[in-house]
Amino acid sequence: MNAINTSFSQNISIVHPEYFFITGLSGIPYSRYYYIFLFCIYFIAVIGNSAVLLLIAVERSLHSPKYIGVFNLALADLGETNAVFPNMMKTFLFDSQYISYNACLANMFFVFFFIGTQCLTLVVLAYDRFVAICLPLRYHAIVTNTVMSLFFSAIWACNACQASLTVYFINRLSFCKSNVIESYFCDHGPVFRLACNDNSINVFIAKFNTSLFLVAPLIIVVLSYLGIFLALSKITTWEGRFKALRTCASHLLVVGLYFLPKICVYIIALTTFLSANARIISTSLAYAVPAMLNPIIYVLNTVEIKDLIRKVLKKRSVGCNIT
Predict the structure, then answer these.
(1) What is the pTM (predicted TM-score) of this model?
(2) 89 contacts: CB under 8 Å, gap ≥ 6
(3) 228-238, pLDDT tens digit by residue?
(4) Half-sphere exposure of 137 (CA within 13 A, CB side)
(5) Rounded to the nearest 5°, which phi and psi values hold at 21?
(6) How far apart are CA 102 and CA 273, in angstroms?
(7) pLDDT tens for residues 45-60?
(8) Which residues of the chain have pLDDT under 70?
């Protein structure tokens, strides 16, 4: 009975603000131009990822395991940019820096949901390349459309659960001191640090999310490429090695773009003091730039997509000549 009363009193004492105030960049002249720059990146990312989604959905020759992965990556990129940047444009370009409590939690959910999907999609694509190069004769038996669809269904379901858990424990905090978030969206760390009751479970979740969506995937990707390089070393000719490695070029570029900036920001934040403005600029670029460049990389470095574009352009040129 005492335990029930204690739990009830703790629930009564929880204080939630009606609004949070998102600071964004502070004390920097002409900061609006940076937000306009980010909006340009956002616009290119939306156009590029939408084009990739449409191309893969319409073209039956791209309905293969690898392009199921590329489709999911483009969908996650599109979701992440739409979760972060339109709200940021409204907040800072139109001087509307207040966000309601429930809208803040919704923003946090979708941002972390799509970030997790991006990261784990890169792991699945690394698995695809590992099997294709290390077990080429068994590739079509091991990596099928059904297997990839099951992988991504599990990823979306697990990410939804993890993002919900993250938001649930934020909702258990009491905010009785400040409602000012030193970030450009409802970021998990800056929000739970505002709590005036015990936030140890939130600290654990932050570390767990970092391990689950940054450290562990990077280790898995590195190990998969160590296996790939070992398999390549057994190919006798340099021409054969280069041909096999070219199939990994797009994925390697995307992995580098995704992980390197985030790892660098995380290490700097752990080892030295990182001001709020420096953290906002570095993390916003780390989220925005990969989402913009990913579709460009896959279009320019993927033989199937380049061949498809050439065929479309050739048909149009023939049609124009006839008319």
Answers:
(1) 0.89
(2) 35, 38, 39, 42
(3) 999 988 887 88
(4) 0
(5) -110, 120
(6) 31
(7) 999 999 999 989 988 8
(8) 1-12, 316-323
